[in-house]
Specification:
Elements (H helix, E strand, L loop, with lengths): L3 H18 L1 H8 L2 E12 L6 E11 L4 E13 L4 E14 L11 E14 L6 E13 L4 E10 L11 E11 L12 H20 L101 E2 L12 H13 L5 E6 L6 H23 L6 E7 L10 E5 L5 E5 L1 H4 L1 E6 L1
Parallel strand pairs: 10-11
Antiparallel strand pairs: 1-2, 1-8, 2-3, 3-4, 4-5, 5-6, 6-7, 7-8, 9-14, 10-14, 12-13
Length: 427
């Protein structure tokens, strides 16, 4: 008679010896494997009693779906005519149903099993080979232990002593050599794949999102609140041609010299309000209302004194806000010298015909007069308008001035803006 208990113990001894002698074999047998104990009951199908039993098992997880399980069982099968004590060695294949679907949970695994049991009844000389089908569920208690509730159905015998069909129920505790976090059994590859797909989808959607509509994806946009229609660089920053820290769309003087100090509107500072910017003013503390030359130096009693020019956009006669401080300097001069009268002379660039340029230059002169009278209270009788059109250009419009911005853009401008101006002459 084959003693199954001795065979099981011998197998355990051989496996233990192998662990100590061969590291590779040890890893093969322990990685993604578990050992367990179980208690349960078995009975013949039909009218019979449940009888207590117990067992040991070893399970090796091949991958996320399939595992092999070997076990040793002892128990009793009883019917109306007899009571049979038995022992059995079992070999089964397990299919992890939970890892066949997405989002099936990570603490409960349901499986199906099928295999063979080599059963010895009482003192029979030979073992019977019994095919069986089963099912079960595992619940993870923690990173190393799980509860295992199982049932199997023995379908008669293939060889050896005849056994009637019988059923076994078991409740066991398994110890996993590989922690749950890393175990292939407890980590559904479909969940991981679905998570990766969701992540990629989120990243793709992020690449196509442009909250402020400036043409730069939010993922790469340094400023997601750029106003509509504003030109930006490759990082979504509003362009700042003169690099004064004030974006072009909010800059009232977008062509200030490099490195000068500007206010929050992008206009170069003029501390003494004499109409000459600080970067050009060699006398930055001129008295209020003083007449100064082009360097900001006070000229006392000289009617030929310099006064700042007022500049205009293309084809425009509107006085921009950037020019108000220059007008304030002219007004201060007139207020400090009540006997002065001024001729306001308008100029134009060479674009268009001469007659139209003469007209727009005169409109510019009148716009400046209106601003001086309405904003600064200068009597209109002290101001007269004149136009020289395109006849007295200040700068050569054929000359192009180029500069390279911090992000590598080359910006080119002509000097025509210098010719679209209004100048003042003290009578």
């Amino acid at each position: 008679m084959i003693d199954l208990k001795k065979i099981a113990l011998a197998s355990l001894f051989i496996a233990t010896s192998a662990f100590a002698q061969d590291g590779k074999l040890k890893g093969l047998l322990i990685d993604d494997a578990s050992v367990g104990v179980e208690v349960g009951a078995s009975k013949y199908m039909g009218d019979s009693d449940l009888e207590f039993g117990y067992g040991l098992n070893y399970t090796k997880q091949i991958n996320a779906l399939f595992a092999l399980k070997a076990g040793y069982l002892e128990g009793t099968l009883t019917d109306a005519a007899k009571s049979d004590d038995y022992s059995a060695l079992t070999v089964e294949g397990l299919v992890n149903l939970s890892n066949l679907s997405v989002g099936s949970g990570n603490s409960l695994k349901v499986y199906l099993s099928t295999g063979l049991a080599f059963v010895t009844v009482d003192d029979a000389d030979d073992s019977s080979v019994v095919p069986n089908l089963g099912a079960g569920a595992k619940y993870a208690i923690n990173e190393s232990f799980d509860l295992d509730l199982s049932t199997s159905l023995g379908l008669g015998t293939l060889s050896g002593e005849d056994l009637e069909s019988h059923m076994t129920l078991g409740l066991g505790v398994n110890y996993r050599f590989t922690k749950k976090e890393a175990s292939v059994e407890w980590n559904n590859p479909l969940d991981a794949m679905y998570g990766d797909i969701a992540t990629v989808k989120t990243e793709i959607e992020g690449l196509s999102t442009d909250s402020d509509g400036d043409g730069v994806s939010d993922r790469f946009d340094n400023d997601n609140n750029t106003p509509e229609g504003v030109a930006v660089d490759g990082k979504g920053n509003a362009l700042d041609v003169d690099m004064d820290g004030v974006a072009d769309y909010a800059d009232e003087d977008p062509f200030t010299a490099r490195g000068v100090q500007v206010d929050d509107k992008g206009r170069e500072l003029d501390s003494d309000k004499d109409g000459v910017a600080n970067s050009l003013d060699i006398e930055p503390n001129s008295p209020s209302g003083a007449t100064v030359n082009f360097q900001g130096k006070e000229i006392k009693g000289a009617k030929g004194a310099f006064m700042p020019a007022i500049y205009f956009d293309y084809n425009s006669a509107k006085v921009s806000y950037a020019n108000y401080e220059r007008l304030a300097a002219v007004a201060a001069l007139l207020q400090a010298n009540p006997n002065y009268t001024i001729t306001v002379i308008g100029y134009a660039d060479s674009v268009g015909n001469s007659a139209n340029n003469h007209k727009i230059a005169l409109r510019r002169a009148n716009s400046v007069i209106d601003a001086l009278t309405s904003m600064f209270g200068i009597a209109s009788s002290r101001l007269s308008a004149d136009s020289k059109g395109e006849d007295a250009p200040l700068a050569d419009e054929s000359v192009k001035v180029s500069e390279t911005t911090a992000d590598g853009q080359v910006i080119s401008n002509s000097l025509s803006r210098m010719n679209r101006r209004v100048e003042f002459a003290i009578d």
